[in-house]
Amino acid sequence: MTNAAMHVARTGLDSQSARMRVIANNLANVNTTGFKKDRAEFETLAYQTMTVPGAPSSAENRYAVGLALGSGVQMTGTARVNTQGAMSQTDNPLDLAIEGDGLFQVLRPDGSTGYTRAGNFSLSAEGQIVTSDGLRLQPEISVPEGATSVTIGADGTVSAQLQGQSTPTELGRIELARFVNPSGLQALGGNLFAETAASGTPQVGTPGLDGRGSLRQGSLEGSNVNVVQELVDMIETQRAYEVNSKMISATDEMLRNANQQL
User: Fold this and answer.
1) What whole-number distance in Å separates Cα of residue 152 and Cα of residue 249?
2) Are residues 217 and 93 located together in one domain of the fold?
3) What is the pLDDT of residues 214-232, one digit of tens each?
């Protein structure tokens, strides 16, 4: 029985260690543009049923609660918290923030589509709107050389003042992708996500329509990490780790005493 208690405590140490890593990643990305924090989720391991509730305890009586011994805990996954991050004004015409649901679409090097909330875009040498890693925004939009006063509307319409023209010219329209289960997207790093079977297929369309958020030019969405809450969670995780460690020490002491008395 003491060996079983030591095994249960070990699963607690493993789970709390994994949760601490999740918290550390959240705090590390507190200033990452468009970052969405993760939350560790746990579940109990299998129970060893010694007595089934309702089983006969005598000819006339039954057990009211039964007896089941747990075998520990495990972390089942990390749920992404998709709440809105704080907006900051940058006054850069190519900085975009999404107010509401939706993700920008970019073309990855392997030809697949990546999705991101980070709207810190810039222009490539060819005049295309790209991410900081050089991934092209989809649908592709090119800004002609010499264009001034680039304007991006809340509905994604991109226009600019071209040389020799008196009125702005529309260059294209930015579209946003929306997923039924955005928490099911696979995190790739580099502020990118990929579609999975759990996320569902992307519903692409005009910003501000069909549940998609609108765009705000000259702003960036910050991380939704609450530093105070993460620090509280870190202390809670540390205490839980210490308790499980003490459980192993106590179990070891019980085994030592049993060996000495035999």
Assistant:
1) 62
2) yes
3) 999 999 999 999 999 999 9
Residues 6+ apart with CB under 8 A from 73: 11, 12, 15, 42, 43, 44, 45
CB 229 within 8 A of CB 221: no
Task: Assess whether 174 and 237 both reside in one domain.
Answer: no
Can you spell out the DSSP letters for 238-251? HHHHHHHHHHHHHH
Which phi and psi (to 5°) does residue 214 adopt?
A: -95, 165
3-state secondary structure 165-230: CCCCEEEEECCEEECCCHHHCEEEECCEEECCCCCCCCEEECCCCCCECEEEECEEECCCCCHHHH
Q: What is the mean pLDDT of the chain?
A: 92
Are 75 and 159 part of one and the same domain?
no
Which residue segment(s) compose the domain that 104 sits in? Answer: 86-222
Residue 93 and residue 209 share a domain: yes
Confidence of residue 2 (pLDDT cuts 50, 70, 90): low
Between the alpha carbon of residue 170 and those of residues 58, 74, 142, 177, the distances in Å are 84, 54, 11, 21
**Number of domains observed in the structure of the chain:** 2
Q: How far apart are CA 251 and CA 69, in angstroms?
A: 16
Relative orientation angle of helices 2-28 and 227-261, to the nearest 10 degrees? 160
pLDDT tens digits, 73-124 = 999 999 999 999 999 999 999 999 999 999 999 999 999 999 999 999 999 9
| C-beta separation of 217 from 207 below 8 A | no
Q: In the predicted model, is pLDDT for residue 170 greater than 60?
A: yes
User: Residue 1 pLDDT more than 80?
Assistant: no
